[in-house]
Design goal:
single chain; about 40% helix
């Protein structure tokens, strides 16, 4: 018999082929299968008559199968139809490409069907329903995320087998944590998350498993924080940098000054700085980074700033050079498109210490790049880099100070989880003189009117962006605007104005030329994909028009909007969509009504869940499967984690808890204990 941590193929009823299907869902062990949380539950306990069922709503209807019709085909889809009766009226049950479900129904037998109802008073149908025998009615039946080849019935059967492998005594949560937070046992939680006795049992199960996720994440983050701070960094001297403040052509905000002081204090400590600089679009994060680089330079240290794209790296290079070179600080740019000859020259000067600040892309982490005295590492838009990339850059110095920059506003509760191993500085003020951007959400019917508004601005000497969601058209994206074909079409509508095209598949040198031409005013209208989402700064561009705006996340729309409003002219953002659904209207209404990135992120998370903010792909941390970011529960989990680590720093007395944290973080590519 399989045990809890055996490969899932050894579980009764699974085997090699089915294990391959489970792997597509990220399930490799019996224990992983227990963590395959239902995405919802069907309540079969109160079926209605088919005449009472509303169209387009998922409803439970009880009926006896009267007749099974032969298989039919329509447009390449196999149709399986069944005639059933609820005792008063007949209705049809329809399955698409699902012979398995059709074969499972027996004529003369009674079932409760749950699915979307369609039709009229004379003829109603239930489409692709789930069903159970009427005599086996249960209150709540789990519905799981699926993959082709794995049905609901198979997963339920396999999970019942997995539950039999669960030793009632197995529990990684310290007993005091369990009792302090009024939590049920792990075995009770797994049994009732999958097959709840009732609503109360389900609520207890959700509470326990949600708490566990947040608690173990905090345990892992506390270990990461301690690991990052257990080494001695380069302790700097508290030197004044008034000449930097005097030389820049604007006054820093109070938030910028505060962030600089916090970083400087960190860098004067024996423990390496490990700080997040978080700020909304246009809050002046680069100026803070420049000040810190100058402070490191005065202390005889080199700095490296890594950006995710060549466009953003070039932007940072130009900004840092304008701030620092007048003060005698040499700045270089190292990206993939720099010529081989120039690269070799830069590398040599970097290794000799002739460049104090290096700005670049992942080219900075190549083995051949060496620094003489790297004391400060800055990662911009850090969620776009993998854990190993950030570690490799830090490895080019002896435990350098680290600053992480993020222009993606994140609600505080989520920030505590994602950046729990970092100290946080927030830029919550915008520089003086920033003119608010007017935002309008309109339907495609007003596209021509929107184009005329853009033309009017171009005629007055301004420049504009038009963003499309795709580069090329394909059969799966009908109705979406593709940048390539769009740029060709738009030239006709904008005759007399130079139109440029920018997208991620272009070579670095091509992108640089397009951006240089746009910045110089040679290109008046730039059609682009989201490659311009971060970092692009063209003060004369005052219009951002976004096609298929409903296809973007709210935070992404806010980032795109932030590409304008950087000059002295009134700026506008126009969100165009042909999607008239209530959800699309609600989302675009939010972005049009506020310019507060933190509020937008909060609303975005409510609408889409935390998956888009928080997942292995973006943040190198375990994905939340069930926990909602409830601030009270997060606070409880965090406090319990701090107490646990304080009483048992190495978790020597809690080996199961240590193994659980290690398992989760290793899945996300992070080794927290080595």
């Amino acid at each position: 018999m399989a045990d809890l941590f055996s490969p899932v193929k050894y579980l009764k009823g699974v085997g090699e082929k089915r294990a391959e299907l489970y792997a597509k869902l990220g399930i490799y062990t019996v224990y992983d299968l227990l963590w395959h949380i239902p995405r919802g539950y069907v309540d079969y306990s109160n079926p209605v008559k088919i005449s009472q069922a509303e169209n387009d709503l998922r409803t439970a209807v009880e009926g006896v199968v009267k007749k099974k019709f032969p298989e039919a085909t329509a447009n390449g889809i196999k149709l399986y139809k069944v005639l059933a009766s609820d005792g008063e009226n007949d209705f049809k049950v329809v399955f698409f490409n699902n012979r398995y479900a059709y074969d499972a129904l027996g004529e003369g037998k009674s079932y409760i069907f749950y699915g979307k109802v369609s039709g009229n008073l004379l003829s109603k149908e239930i489409l692709s329903p789930t069903f159970i025998p009427a005599e086996q009615r249960e209150k709540l039946v789990p519905v799981y995320p699926l993959t082709a080849g794995l049905s609901e019935g198979i997963i339920r059967l396999n999970i019942k087998s997995a539950l039999s492998c669960l030793d009632g005594m197995y529990d990684y949560l310290p007993k005091e944590v369990q009792s302090e937070n009024l939590l049920c046992t792990l075995s009770y939680a797994f049994e009732n998350i999958h097959f709840p006795e009732d609503e109360r049992a389900l609520s207890l199960a959700k509470k326990r498993l949600s708490f566990d996720e947040l608690f173990i994440l905090q345990i892992g983050m506390l270990f990461l924080k301690r690991k990052n701070r257990s080494r001695t960094g380069f302790k700097m001297q508290r030197l004044e940098i008034d000449e930097f403040f005097d030389s820049i052509p604007f006054e820093l905000t109070g938030a910028q000054k505060r962030a600089i002081n916090e970083a400087v204090s960190d860098m004067c400590s024996e423990i390496p700085m490990n700080r997040l600089l978080q700020g909304d679009v246009g809050s002046g994060k680069t100026a803070v980074a420049a000040a810190i680089c100058y402070f490191a330079h005065k202390n005889g240290c080199q700095s490296a700033l890594m950006a995710p794209t060549e466009i953003l790296a070039a932007q940072h290079f130009n900004t840092l050079r304008s701030f620092l070179e007048p003060l005698g600080v040499n700045v270089c740019l190292l990206t993939g498109s720099v010529s081989s000859k120039e690269k070799e020259k830069i590398k040599k000067l970097l290794s000799q210490g002739d460049f104090s600040v290096a700005v670049g892309t992942q080219a900075l982490i190549q083995n051949s790049v060496e620094f003489k005295n790297l004391g400060l590492v800055i990662a911009d838009e850090q969620h776009r880099f993998g854990v190993m990339q950030r570690a490799t850059l830090s490895g080019k110095g002896e435990s350098p100070h680290r600053l992480v920059i993020s222009a993606t506003p994140i609600p505080r509760t989520l920030g505590l989880i994602i950046y729990g191993d970092l100290d946080i500085s927030v830029l919550d003020e915008l520089p003086k003189g920033r003119i608010p951007i007017e935002t309008y959400a309109v339907t495609g019917k007003l596209r021509e009117r929107a184009f005329n508004f853009v033309k009017k601005q171009l005629a007055e000497g301004r420049q504009a962006y038009i963003v499309c969601p795709m580069i090329d058209e394909n059969e799966f994206t009908e109705g979406l605007k593709a940048a390539k074909s769009y740029a060709e079409e738009i030239e006709k509508s904008f005759e007399g104005f130079s139109v440029g095209l920018l997208h991620g598949k272009m070579k670095g040198s091509e992108k640089e030329k397009i951006m240089a031409d746009f910045k110089a005013g040679k290109i008046r209208l730039l059609v682009s994909t989201t490659v311009i989402e971060v970092g692009v700064d063209v003060p004369n561009a005052n219009i951002m028009l976004i096609e298929n705006a409903d296809r973007f996340g709210l935070s992404q729309l806010h980032q795109l909007r932030g590409r304008v409003g950087r000059g002295s002219h009134k700026s506008y953002c126009v969100l165009l969509t042909d999607n008239l659904s209530a959800e699309a209207r609600e989302r675009l209404k939010i972005i049009a009504s506020t310019s507060d990135g933190f509020e937008i992120a909060k609303q975005d998370m409510k609408l889409r869940g935390c998956g888009d903010f928080f997942g292995e792909r973006q943040h190198g941390l375990p994905l939340l499967k069930i926990a909602e970011l409830d601030s009270e529960m997060l606070s409880q989990a965090r406090n319990s984690a701090i107490k646990t680590i304080k009483s048992d720093p190495e978790l020597l007395g809690h080996p199961k808890l240590k193994a659980e944290a290690e398992r989760l973080f290793k899945k996300a590519g992070e080794d927290i204990f080595n």
